[in-house]
Amino acid sequence: MGQLDNQPENSTSSNTKEIETLLSSMTQELRDIQQNIVVQLARDMARLQAEQSRLTADIQKLQNQQQQIQSRQMQGGPGRHTQQQWTKQLAQVMASQLQQELSERLKEIMVVPPPPSQSLTTVDPNIGMSSPQTVNLNENAYRLLASLDTTLNTTFKNLQQELSSYQSSLSQQLGRMHSLQQQGEVILETLVDRLIDQLQEEATNVQTTAEIVTNRRQGLPVGTAPNQGDRPQGSDPATQSDRIAAERAAMAEVRTAPPATPVASPPVESNVFLTGLILALLSSITISFQNIITRVILSPPSLFGLWEGQVLAPGAGNSLLILGMRMLFVVPLMGFILAPILYPNTWRDIKQLGNPEKRGSIWIVIGSGLFLFMSQFFIYIALGNIPTGVAITLFFIFPPVTAVLAWIMFGAKPSFIFALATVTIYLGCFLTVSGRLTGGAPDGNLGLGIGTAIASGLTFAGYVILTQLSARKLKLHPAPFSVINFSVILILAIPFVLLGSREGNLFSWNVLEENWQALWMGSVALAMTTLIGYALNNFAIPMIGAPLASVVAATGPGLTSLMALLFIGEGLGLNEWLGVLIVTLWVLGISVDNMNKQKKPAPAAPAPAKQGA
User: Fold this and answer.
1) Do 391 and 540 fall within a single domain?
2) How confident is the model at residue 357 (pLDDT cuts 50, 70, 90)?
3) Where is this region: Disordered (predicted)?
4) Alpha-carbon dihedral sign for residues 342, 348, 354, 359
């Protein structure tokens, strides 16, 4: 306030009046813009409602015609009444023509004298014998009747063929009417969906504009509007796709790092911001505790000295068994309880993936579920063979891999800070592994644990990339996206679990009779930590934004190592603690660097929009 205090009172009063005048003019302009938008939307709504009414009337008319035709078919076949009328008219015309032709032929026969060669024995009419003329007349009448019968038979056969052709043509027309009805329903549904999307987008623009006005009235700068600078939310499709991808990656049930292209976090009040930060931290703690539970199930350390470890021996079959039992609880609870609460249109969006325009891209969602399944499978094997902190630290090699893949696929070129962070992260991983190499790994297979932890990070990078690609192509909300991912994991795990019930193969699992109760308890605990961590992260993101939530999630290596030391007494050597610290700090650095990039204005035609389309 130093410079303002030194200004004269007249200048202050003049500035206040100018600000009030500016605010009044801007408020009036915004009201005019809002009124124009409302009028335009009302016109569009009226036009679409008129089109809908017209299409509905046409469909109703076609349905009535179809019902009439079907009722005629039930009464005696299609066009029966029309056939009878045609047959009657044709018979009348033919009868009149034949009668006229027969009369003329009889007149000719009466006029022409009979030939001598055809004379027959004649007897006087008084004794009952016929004359030759009478016999010829009878023969001619028989010929005419036979010809008439043949003509009638031929005519009726032709008529029957024509009626059959008419029936076939009528059936084809009914099929076309039914197809047109279905097309009309699809068109109406598409129009309604597009109208809803347009209304939502316009409502978002109006809401953002109102927030800008509110910020100005409160003396805040314009740049504090949600998600971007002076542009309304949703104006940049590429930024909106990246926002959805960032939310999905931040809400994954495994320890996640920030996506390659998150968006700027919205400004929030201090208490809301603090609440969101606490929720994000609780989510990170919950997921770290989930890793510790997995470690206890597969290794000797006990949890708090109360729950004895080593319920299952580490191995491929036992890891798949735990994964399948965990998803057996997660999928129904997530699909029918948690996801509809977080996003009411979850199942509607899942059904819309069957539409022709989205059916070709559904493989992206299924592929991301496949990569997540492999990542979970590898991390379970790693947690059974090496300490929790070491496994999670090696798992966090995925942020650099994700950024490189994003550079290749979307053109998001990494910065110098990212290159330095990548080298440092791998140095930290080397320090962590070197501590194991010098200290040994008495509780498991060191080489298998290190290899599977790295493989888990690599496959998780593929999951993140497909998640971003899905956000660009499908625009799918994170809730239905996660339901599909978890369902894919369950579907993939079931055949391996059934195969593992037979002994003598790679995926065989073995559970002692007295350990089944502890295994079910551990599976329920894993499912609950998955759902609780997902829900907490979902509630935190609207409060602090997806980038900052990713920054909190990046504390995974250090937080997991510390919790493993406190809960199961699993300590690390000096080199290992140094490696965990280096990886944690540089993953945090990558997150903060990505978050700061999004505060800059986006280019007019970014390369990722073309390559990701």
Assistant:
1) yes
2) confident
3) 214-241
4) negative
Dihedral angle computed from the Cα positions of residues 330, 333, 337 and 339, in that order, rounded to the nearest 10 degrees: 20
Q: What are phi and psi of 303, to 5 degrees?
A: -90, 115
Crossing angle for the helix pair 388-395 and 556-567, nearest 10 degrees? 170
Terminus-to-terminus CA distance in the chain, angstroms? 50
Residue 93 corresponds to which tokens in the numbers above? Answer: 């015309």
User: Hey, what are 285's tokens?
Assistant: 């703690």
Could you report the per-residue pLDDT of 588-611, keeping only the tens digit for each?
A: 776 666 666 655 543 333 333 333
User: Model pTM greater than 0.85?
Assistant: no
14 is a domain residue: no
Task: For residue 262, give its domain range.
Answer: 237-611
Is residue 375, in this structure, part of any structural domain at all?
yes
Q: Which helix (H) or strand (E) holds 576?
A: helix 574-597
CA gap 443, 216 in Å, rounded? 62
**Amino acid identity, residue 3?**
Q
pLDDT at 497 over 90: yes
Token pair 């036009």: residue: 47
Pick the closest to residue 556 from 247, 245, 258, 297 (CA basis): 258
List beta partners, residue 307.
303
- DSSP states of 446-487: HHHHHHHHHHHHHHHHHHHHHHHHHHHHT---HHHHHHHHHH
Task: Match 């997921």 to its residue by tokens.
Answer: 287
Please give the torsion angle defined by the CA atoms of residues 422, 278, 373 and 571, in that order, rounded to the nearest 10 degrees.
70
Count the domains in the chain.
2
Tokens 């070197």, residue? 434
Tokens 């891209």 belong to which residue?
361
The per-residue DSSP string of 117-174 comes to GG------GGGTPPPHHHHHHHHHHHHHHHHHHHHHHHHHHHHHHHHHHHHHHHHHHH
pLDDT over 90 (residue 484): yes
Q: In this structure, is residue 371 part of a structural domain?
A: yes
Q: Do 201 and 242 have their domain in common?
A: no
For helices 546-553 and 574-597, give the axis angle rounded to 10 degrees.
170
CB 392 within 8 A of CB 557: yes
CA pair distance 57, 62, nearest whole angstrom: 9
